[in-house]
Automatic annotation (TrEMBL):
BP GO annotations: malate metabolic process
Family named by the database record: Belongs to the malic enzymes family.
Gene3D superfamilies per the UniProt record, alphabetical: Malic enzyme, N-terminal domain, NAD(P)-binding Rossmann-like Domain
Residues binding a divalent metal cation: E245, D246, D269
Protein's recorded name: Malate dehydrogenase (Oxaloacetate-decarboxylating)
Organism per entry: Tremella mesenterica
Highest taxon of source: Eukaryota
Start and end residues of each Malic enzyme NAD-binding domain: 270-531
SUPFAM superfamilies assigned to the protein according to its UniProt record, in alphabetical order: Aminoacid dehydrogenase-like, N-terminal domain (SSF53223), NAD(P)-binding Rossmann-fold domains (SSF51735)
Keywords: Metal-binding, NAD
The keyword NAD is assigned to this record: yes
Pfam families reported in the protein's UniProt record: malic, Malic_M
Domain Malic enzyme N-terminal: 79-260
Necessary cofactors: Mg(2+); Mn(2+)
Length: 571
């Protein structure tokens, strides 16, 4: 698992081929000797820049763009030219540029993918080319032992739904964050879109649409297509992590359950959302000095995110207490548009992927109203989580009802974007008299605490705080699966870094600007759990301190190595 931050590497490319290769291109930073050795003298301006000078110039160019979508386009163009400069720029201005390369701006870029397209990246697979899928996969992986594949079928992109071939954008963006936050070598990552058609009529009617212009493939044909892709990953890249992203609600959990025991599989929408929420909850219950198995948890919104959170919290309860899975599940009350999920609902109102243990029985509920306020009154929850995209659903009456039954209510309005948030933290803080412990799905500024000059810092429950570390730890361990224990270990480590543990008015998660150091600590926790459980490769060092140093040395960093020309070197 070597990195391109070695002191000297051998490269076989020369002239334009080197300048047009984003992995090895240094642009104006090629040294005098490298310009002589690689035939670059007359192809570059005379001055030799440092990487920092290049970053400063690129940032000025970035700032000159007049809109976020143009800034996104500039960064995509930079990535296509020079990986090291791209990541160095992002690292230098992380909090400012992150919303441009990811949500919310990347959603706009994906929605307009066919109109913004300039250069392909990653691997595009479609049903008419199923017979050549293996050949195409091998072409994309030629000469590479991959550590990471991010794949999407684009049915549920970033809150904007079915985006067809534009799904390559979310796969590529997630791979970027793995490099930026965890140090995964970009040369060992591959973005893939399974372009199985689209039910987005606007795309089908768009004369410039670049994808497979058919309705979305379903049923046996879809399963066979995904099966073939996963089989190729297992056959040709058996050690890589396979990250599923933005699959539709009818497929996400089903596919995760189908493949998770066959290969190292991760679904960020389910497991990542659940893990970061678990970390925030663990920090909150440290403030309240209670135990996770003693919580009563209402989840408003039973889609992929809500179910993922319920499953992850349930797993954590089982692993950290003497509760059985059924006992742990009894702590949860899930609501969707039909109200509380209970067994008396018509069959077509309960999706098949929802486990029966998470559906309430009539014996423990009765025939009363099952709206959110009624559930709050009856359950007296300690925790209220929103994944509904129903704006302002957590009303003043709901928040005040929670406060009647618990001193420090834990309220997580997690829906994105901001306009879909279940409650503004300012309102929840005011209605709870400053007692609510909060985390949100989008960034919010600190809010005033009633009767105090202090402010409460609202944690941003962003998956990027944890999934790169979970993934990198799994990659380091070479475990055949990302186990529930590994995920819980990563979430526990994240919660231990929360500022709220020292001051309850501070955030339940650490600051986003520390994302690199945070994810490294998470990766180490995941690695340690894999070692403890006997799931790690024999290549992993034996001592704990040796493992830390070994892991640190395997992080890719945005620095320029020296190049030596060699016909047998990298191409």
């Amino acid at each position: 698992m070597t990195t391109t931050s070695q002191k000297t590497i051998k490269v076989a490319l020369r002239g334009p081929a080197l300048l047009n290769n984003p992995r090895f291109n240094k642009g104006s930073a090629f040294t005098r000797k490298e310009r002589d050795d690689f035939g670059l003298r007359g192809r570059l301006p005379y001055a030799v820049d440092t990487l920092q000078e290049q970053v400063d110039r690129a940032y000025q160019q970035y700032q000159a763009r007049s809109s976020d979508i143009l800034r996104n386009s500039f960064l995509q163009s930079l990535k296509a030219q020079n990986w090291t400069l791209f990541y160095a720029l992002l690292s230098a201005h992380l909090e400012e540029l992150f919303p441009i390369i990811y949500t919310p701006t990347e959603a706009d870029a994906i929605a307009n993918y066919s109109h913004l397209f300039r250069r392909s990246e990653g691997l595009y697979l479609s049903p008419p080319l199923t017979d050549t899928m293996e050949e195409d996969f091998l072409d994309a992986c030629e000469g590479r032992e991959l550590e990471l594949i991010v794949v999407s079928d684009a049915e549920a992109i970033l809150g904007i739904g079915d985006q067809g071939s534009g799904g390559i954008g979310i796969s590529a963006a997630k791979a970027v964050i793995y490099t930026l936050a965890a140090g995964v070598d970009p040369a060992k990552a591959l973005a893939v879109t399974l372009d199985v058609g689209t039910n987005n009529q606007d795309l089908l009617d768009d004369p410039l649409y670049m994808g497979y212009r058919e309705k979305r493939l379903r049923g046996q044909g879809y399963d066979e297509f995904v099966d073939k892709f996963v089989a190729l990953v297992k056959k040709h890249q058996p050690k890589c992590l396979l990250h599923f992203e933005d699959f539709g609600v009818s497929n996400a959990q089903r596919l995760l359950a189908k493949y998770r025991d066959e290969h190292s599989i991760f679904n960020d929408d389910i497991q990542g959302t659940g893990a970061v929420t678990l970390a925030a909850l663990q920090a909150a219950i440290s403030v309240t000095r209670t135990n996770i198995e003693d919580q009563r948890i209402v989840i408003y919104g039973a889609g992929s995110a809500g179910l993922g959170i319920a499953r992850q919290l349930r797993d954590a309860i089982v692993l950290s207490s003497s509760c059985s899975e059924a006992e742990a599940a009894s702590r949860f009350y899930l609501l969707d548009k039909h109200g509380l999920l209970k067994r008396s609902l018509p069959e077509d109102q309960i999706r098949p992927e929802i486990e029966s243990s998470l559906i309430r029985s009539e014996e423990d509920w009765g025939d009363g109203e099952t709206g959110l306020l009624e559930v709050i009154k009856k359950v007296k929850p300690t925790v209220l989580i929103g994944t509904s995209t129903h704006p302002k659903a957590f009303t003043e009456e709901v928040v005040k009802e929670m406060c009647k039954h618990v001193d420090r209510p834990i309220i997580f309005p997690l829906s994105n974007p901001t306009r879909l948030c279940e409650v503004h933290p300012k309102d929840a803080n005011e209605w709870s008299g400053g007692k609510a412990l909060m985390a949100t799905g989008s960034p919010f500024p600190p809010v005033d605490i009633p009767g105090s000059e202090k402010k409460y810092v609202v944690a941003e429950c962003n998956n990027a705080m944890i999934y790169p570390g979970l993934g990198f730890g799994t990659i380091l361990s070479q475990s055949k699966a990302m186990t529930p224990d590994m995920i819980v270990a990563g979430a526990k480590r994240l919660s231990e870094l929360a500022p709220a543990l020292k001051d309850p008015d501070q955030a339940l998660l650490p600051p986003f600007g520390d994302i690199g150091d945070i994810n490294f600590e998470i990766a180490l926790a995941v690695l340690e759990q894999a070692v403890q459980d006997g799931d790690a490769s024999s290549e992993v060092p034996k001592g704990k301190e040796e493992r830390r140093n070994w892991a640190k040395g395997r992080r890719w960093t945005a620095v320029y190595p020296e190049y030596e020309y060699d016909e047998g070197g990298y191409k």
